[in-house]
């Protein structure tokens, strides 16, 4: 994998995410129109890839509705055919044990069959979709992605010609990824994200990013990013270590301590300024397509 800074750096914008709550920020995009508009504004600000989750427009809570995904994708495509669309497959892996019997699911559990978690990808055929390899504590709950289930998801993603972005939250995920490339579940050299700063996962530090990068297969294309206050420091760090970058309201709601970002575009502009200040060139969506082998 690249260890020298990229000639052109791809900025991904993670527009709304799964865990960020509407009550945390009045600026969080909720409806399909708001999510699409926010993605398009981020593209104008310099993002080449938009990473998309959807939400119930009434409650603002996470959703997996095919109709909502379709609505967002159609709105983006109608106005910007170049922007690379990356749909999540992360929802559907959360387990909340009930207090009386921990093998019984409590409210908040979203566990579902792997086939259902990629159904929207099979139908809508985005450019990229995420494939989370983490099984880990998440707050007081647990996220479960068993090797068998992620292999099932990988096969279906591969069958429809969508590029999987492998999400890595800790070192064990990197080893599982290497096994999946070795057995043909995934095709190399691969596109990866190192997710730093999630509690009980990879720590957001230069040493951890170097360690995670060095566990990737040779020739891998990778993005490194930080959650919360580590978002902007990790922008510079990822670039300097040969990676691409990601920002957005999924990962962080603040421009600085106590100052909410008013839009995803504002976060992207700040990331682009950081990158240019250390000598980077920002990749366009067309550049990103060429680099990732997308049509």
Describe, in plain words, how this protein is organized in 3D.
The protein has 10 helices and 17 strands. With 295 residues, it is of the alpha/beta class. The strands form 5 sheets. An 8-stranded parallel β-barrel has the order 2-3-6-8-11-12-13-14, surrounded by 8 helices. The radius of gyration is 18 Å and the shape is globular.
* Weakly predicted, low-confidence segments: none
Globally, the shape reads: globular
Number of strands: 17
Pairing-aware structural class of the strands and helices?
alpha/beta
Order of helices and strands: EEHEEEHEEHHEEEHEHEHEHEEEHEH
Task: For the record, give the distance between the C-alpha atoms at the N and C termini, rounded to a whole number.
Answer: 23 Å
Which sequence of strands runs across the widest sheet?
2-3-6-8-11-12-13-14
Average per-residue pLDDT, rounded, comes to 96
Fraction of residues in helix: 25-40%
Question: What integer value in Å does the Rg equal?
Answer: 18 Å
Q: Hey, roughly how much beta strand do the residues contain?
A: 15-25%
Work out the helix count.
Answer: 10
**Sheet of most strands:** 8 strands, parallel, barrel
Which descriptors apply to this entry?
35% helix; single chain; alpha/beta; three-stranded antiparallel sheet
Question: What can be said about this structure in brief?
Answer:
By secondary structure, the protein is an alpha/beta fold.
What is the strand and helix layout of this fold?
Elements: E1 8-9, E2 11-14, H1 32-45, E3 49-52, E4 54-55, E5 62-63, H2 66-79, E6 84-87, E7 94-95, H3 114-117, H4 119-124, E8 128-132, E9 136-138, E10 141-143, H5 147-159, E11 163-168, H6 171-182, E12 191-196, H7 206-214, E13 221-226, H8 231-240, E14 244-247, E15 254-256, E16 259-260, H9 264-277, E17 281-282, H10 285-292
Parallel strand pairs: 1-17, 2-3, 2-14, 3-6, 6-8, 8-11, 11-12, 12-13, 13-14
Antiparallel strand pairs: 4-5, 7-10, 9-10, 15-16
